[in-house]
Amino acid sequence: MVSCKRADHAIMGNEGLRLTPEEIKTSEDAASQGDAAAAKKLWHHYEFVVYDHEKGEMWREKYEKLSKGETKK
User: Fold this and answer.
1) Is residue 71 predicted with pLDDT exceeding 80?
2) pLDDT (tens digit, 9 = 90+) per residue, 41-52?
3) What's the whole-number mean pLDDT along residues 26-46?
4) Are the CB atoms for 29 and 21 separated by under 8 Å?
5) Measuring CA to CA, which residue among 27, 25, 38 is closest to residue 67?
6) Which runs of consecutive H residues, i.e. helices, occur in the chain?
7) How far, in Å, CA of 67 to CA of 7, rounded?
8) Which of 9, 18, 52, 68 has its CA 20 to 30 A from that of 2?
9) Is there a contact between 17 and 44 (Cβ–Cβ < 8 Å)?
10) Does residue 38 contact residue 55 with C-beta atoms inside 8 Å?
């Protein structure tokens, strides 16, 4: 996460992680097909932009599971 003394700067720094509703749907579809990068995008979106830690944690776990599976191939 962006470390900054001013909260407004930290929020602005995380805006690059924000996904549109269409991007969320596309990323969810891709992650369900085994795309670790899509799961990582969703993790960062929910954890650092939306601040939904429950969903962020869920996508983090999926990302870690998928990224481990990719290295075994």
Assistant:
1) no
2) 999 999 988 889
3) 96
4) no
5) 38
6) 7-14, 21-32, 36-44, 53-72
7) 32
8) 68
9) yes
10) no
